[in-house]
Automatic annotation (TrEMBL):
<dbReference type="Pfam" id="PF13679">
    <property type="entry name" value="Methyltransf_32"/>
</dbReference>
<dbReference type="GO" id="GO:0032259">
    <property type="term" value="P:methylation"/>
</dbReference>
<dbReference type="InterPro" id="IPR029063">
    <property type="entry name" value="SAM-dependent_MTases_sf"/>
</dbReference>
<keyword id="KW-0489">Methyltransferase</keyword>
<dbReference type="InterPro" id="IPR025714">
    <property type="entry name" value="Methyltranfer_dom"/>
</dbReference>
<feature type="domain" description="Methyltransferase">
    <location>
        <begin position="110"/>
        <end position="231"/>
    </location>
</feature>
<dbReference type="GO" id="GO:0008168">
    <property type="term" value="F:methyltransferase activity"/>
</dbReference>
<protein>
    <submittedName>
        <fullName>Methyltransferase</fullName>
    </submittedName>
</protein>
<keyword id="KW-0808">Transferase</keyword>
Amino acid sequence: MPLQGPHLRVRFLALDAFLHAHQELWRPKPFTTPTLPWEARHPDLAQWLRARDLAAAEADHARPERLTGAPAPYPALAAEAAALTALAPFPRQPTPSLPSRFNVDVPGRKWQQIDAFAASLRFTDPVHHWLDWCAGKGHLGRRLAHDGHPLRCLEQDPDLVREGQRLSDRLGLEAEHLQQDVLAEDAAQRLDAHHTPVALHACGDLHLRLMRLADAAGCARLALAPCCYNRTEASAYQPLSQAGREAALALDREDLRLAISETVTAGARVRRQRDRSMAHRLGFDLLQRHLRSEDHYLPTPSLPGTWLERPFAEQAVALANGRLDLPATLDWAHWETAGWRRLAEVRNLELLRGLFRRPLELWLVLDRALYLEDRGYRVQVGPFCDQNLTPRNLLIVAER
């Protein structure tokens, strides 16, 4: 069974202790810090990780807890992280096979996520009216309302609202697609007690807003799979639950990025472009430290996607952005090669930090679950699909 009842708080407190005790291992970022503070305490592990190549790091990126052969303290930390994040999945409910017209225009991977989300929902009382929050075209809502239940979809983008209404009308569903900024004051008027809100990967403040409004409206049940915890206006994380407010761990917005830092669904071309971009930025970082005689990271501007294939020298000039005088003659090949070498080191050193990625995400999800429990809901937490389908696979199901 998914995590529920008193086990929610027990697990949250154990995660809090684990994350707080090992902050020096996961807070420093290898990308911006060439020598990490923990390396002096664990030189064998640091040397072992730095000796590995980029391909090895890539192979272990999504599941760092499965890395074998690493010196202490890696194995013990990996085992503890795996134990703390072990969750039973939601049992899949029998669902009817829908006509293919329901998943028209839905990418295959996205439809699998939607189907798994829908199959994981089982409420004690029947649902009368679905509400798809940050709905896009409303694919999730239509999947849930296929049997004739009324559906309301809220979405800010007017083009997606129009297209969603067209798709729902074509299927003959009782659905209304409304243009709505869910962070706006009037969003509270769009849901009431007879709605069952659902949200699949609503980012940051968007899913927090849903939880608060659903509670205020008296909604008897809701289900959400959170995403992008760092997309919030607050510079420091504001715990939601009583347990969260009493926790030892304190987080800022940069810390929250760790929880979503893995990429298991990107294609080979995207990964190559990402690696090239990062290697060039790291090569530039080494160059700027050399030219300035200062061993500090220099923040650089974002570059348009069209720059990804440009030569390293051109990217370096753009990254300098007038704040750094570049000599007329430079051995660009040397610094580009150094950047690729540094990328391999960074990716492998990040494996240790990656051990705390899932524990941090579950800490955040349980803070949300415990908030809903504080508000009188009975809550379950567990994965609704495999992490290979989406790394953001944790589902919160709440029912009063």
